């Protein structure tokens, strides 16, 4: 028995399902999770000593690759000074200023500890600010595990084939209206009925949690117009796309400014951080300045701020996002060529350094089309890729991430493995 399997059976004795987040279990691909010993650059190493090219990147944060020397060094120095004080440090202001400077719609930002906390708090703020209760979310968008948001969510919810979650009160779910992603007329219909009741529309501007799906031309612009017309706040959940698709996130790429933005993943540089920010007038509603309460013992944690600051400093350097785009293009060209050669119904969807290979004969533009993908084929593909030393998210409905440390060699090795895995699916 492999060490990973041994550790997994031990973990299952003490941890529900043996994992601390369901997306990590390999259930959908009929396998057991690997236990990881260490990471370096584009690689992770499991406890059995096998090396993998990693496209999970801790589900998004590791854009610099694992264990970046500058981040490690900064963390070591901070650790010598202490790991948590529960009192302000200048590190919080430095990271907040970097976010405000980098993201044009953000005047002020509040640090929290996860993406879930960021979206939950942003919704409370939107409700407090507008005095309205309903929210609109898009089918297949995942915003963490807050009650209001666990309705028709993607990610692990789709992977495990459950509609929502037990334990979410019906009254809570009733306040959430779900419309298809990329469908403006469905949204307009909802606004006709609830014009004065909707506090916020929240979405992933580019989705990652049903797999990578781009907004249709003009979709984000129309969302901006409609929400403005009805006095509803527009929230971009950029937990995944923030500092990933561009330094200023999807809103920079598509030139559409939301009222509030949520962050996580990359701004914590691999440590637990989330944040939400937006227009000054709205952010001033948060305690202690305003009436919307939100707090955290470890919020703005010095180690987490340090990892975030050193990560963003490197991402600010000239040419970083062009480099990521070049890497994405190279991988895409190789995989598209494989798809043609093997002649198999697969759609390769990529924006910058995020991508998904949908085992699907038709274009994927929303949750329904994503769900039409062949998960059995994905499972075969995933397991063959793993055998070939390529570590992918263990679900069809997730985004893969390229880091700055994925070199031409790693990308070529991935394309080679992809060819073999596609052939195996076809058999
Ligand atoms: N929002 C988006 C878009 C996400 O992708 C995620 C996590 O994958 C979250 C929110 C929740 O973040 P966390 O897992 O840090 O709570």
Structural overview:
40% of the residues lie in helices and 14% in strands. It folds into two domains: 173 residues, Aspartate Aminotransferase, domain 1, CATH 3.90.1150; 247 residues, Aspartate Aminotransferase, domain 2, CATH 3.40.640.10. With 427 residues, the protein is of the alpha/beta class. The model has no long low-confidence stretch (mean pLDDT 96). It contains 15 helices and 14 strands. A seven-stranded mixed sheet has the order 4-10-9-8-7-5-6, with helices on both faces. Strands 1-2-3-13 form a four-stranded mixed sheet. The site of pyridoxal-5'-phosphate (PLP) has 16 residues, from helix 4. Pyridoxal-5'-phosphate binds next to helix 4.
Q: Count of DSSP helices?
A: 15
Helix/strand-derived category reads alpha/beta
What summary fits the major beta sheet? 7 strands, mixed
Domains counted in the coordinates: how many? 2
Arithmetic mean of pLDDT: 96
DSSP E strands, number: 14
Shape: globular
CATH topology of the largest domain: Aspartate Aminotransferase, domain 2
Strand content: 5-15%
The CATH architecture of the largest domain comes to 3-Layer(aba) Sandwich
Low-confidence stretches: none
Q: Round the Cα radius of gyration to an integer and report it.
A: 21 Å
Task: Catalogue the ligands.
Answer: pyridoxal-5'-phosphate
Biggest sheet: strand arrangement = 4-10-9-8-7-5-6
The CATH class label of the largest domain is Alpha Beta
**Separation of the first and last Cα atoms:** 29 Å
**Helix-strand sequence:** HEEEHHEHEHHEHEHEHEEHHHEEHHEEH
